[in-house]
Specification:
Layout (H helix, E strand, L loop, with lengths): L1 H29 L6 H8 L3 H7 L11 H13 L7 H15 L5 H12 L1 H26 L6 H16 L6 H14 L7
């Protein structure tokens, strides 16, 4: 039974990847507005119904790692080592994320360009990012024993999520991320006015 479940999950993951890869390839070749979900399904050799079982919308096809990103952020808080602060765990997670993402990779550049130049994708990205922020804030509040909607937890989640856009363009993004977390930890008191 375990082998069947494992095989089923692998097959679902393969189908999901095939759909995301086909969508990105078609969007980059023909433009986001000129490609429909039917085109993506045909390219991936699945039905439109199957496509929508894996992705709730056309925009979601471009952000296939969405659920994994949010789960990893929440896990960085909930599954941190005993005695490890939420702040330090988030710093480690986000620095490690930067280490695995090459900003000079042509595929990454093409993906970001597509998103930035397509209003629907940019709007979806913003909603997705804010959803991650709210999930992270809830996990931080839970870890702190604070009530839902806690302002301090929400502020830390916002700062942590915004570090990724603030370090864009920095030569050493990992060090820039560490520096921002140092600033969050120590406060802005020693910063020039």
């Amino acid at each position: 039974m375990t082998e069947t479940v494992g095989r089923r999950e692998r097959k679902k993951a393969q189908t999901r990847k095939a759909l995301a890869d086909a969508a990105l390839r078609l969007f980059l070749e023909h433009g986001y507005d000129k490609v429909g979900v039917r085109d993506v399904a045909e390219e991936a050799d699945v039905s439109v119904t199957t496509l929508f079982k894996h992705f709730p919308s056309k925009e979601a096809l471009v952000f296939d790692e969405d659920e994994g990103i949010e789960a990893a952020l929440v896990s960085a808080v909930r599954d941190r080592a005993p005695g490890r602060s939420v702040l330090h765990s988030l710093r480690e997670h986000l620095v490690a994320t930067r280490a695995t993402r090459r900003i000079d990779d042509p595929a990454v550049i093409a993906h970001l360009t597509l998103v930035r130049e397509t209003p629907e994708l940019l709007e979806y990205w913003d909603r997705m990012w804010r959803r991650h922020e709210f999930a992270l804030a809830a996990a931080i509040a839970e870890a702190a024993g604070a009530p839902e909607g806690d302002l301090r937890s929400a502020a830390l989640a916002r700062f942590a999520m915004d570090t990724t856009s603030l370090i864009r363009g920095q030569e050493d993004q990992q060090q820039a991320m560490r520096d921002l977390f140092d600033l969050i930890e120590t406060g802005f008191g020693d910063t020039p006015a």
